[in-house]
Amino acid sequence: MADGTAQTIWWQRLTSPGGAQLPMSVQERLLWYSKQVRRQRVTNYTLEGVTVVIAASIPAAAALGGSTALAAVLGATVAVLAGLRQLVRPGESWVRASATLVAMQREAVVWSAGAVPYDGERAETLLVENIESLVAAETSQWAEQRTVRRSEPEQQPVS
Fold this sequence. Notes:
The chain has one domain. It has four helices and no strands. The protein has helices spanning 24-63, 68-88, 90-113, 123-147. The two termini are 28 Å apart.
C-alpha cells in the first residue's frame, strides 16, 4: 500500500474457535497459490491479446502496402506466440491453480468455523494434512499436463 503498511488478505485473519492463528504453512501455501493464479491469468491474457493483435495486423499491414517481409515476420511472430502458449499452457495452469486455491480457502474457512472434520483436538494437524494433499494433487496434475497432454490443444478458460 502507499503508506507502507502491509495489506492483509482475508484468510490471514482467520482463527480457530480456540483462537489459534491459521498455521504458517497453510498461509504460505495460500499466498503462493494466490500469486500463481494472478500470474497465470496475466500470462494467459497477455499471450492471447498480443497474439490476436499481431494476427490482426497482418492483413492490415498488407492492405496498407506493407512488404511481404513484414507480413512474414508478423506471421512468424504469431506462430511463436502460439507455440509458447502450447508450451506454457497458462490457461490450464490458471484454471487448475484457481481450483486448488478455492479448495484450500474452503478448508481454511471450515477449520476456522470448527466444523467437521476440524472439530477435534487434531484440527490444526488435519488442516495442514488436507492442504498438503490438495497441493500434492495439483502438482500431480501439473506433471501430467507436462507429459501426457503435450500434443492436445489447450482449452481456454471461461471468464
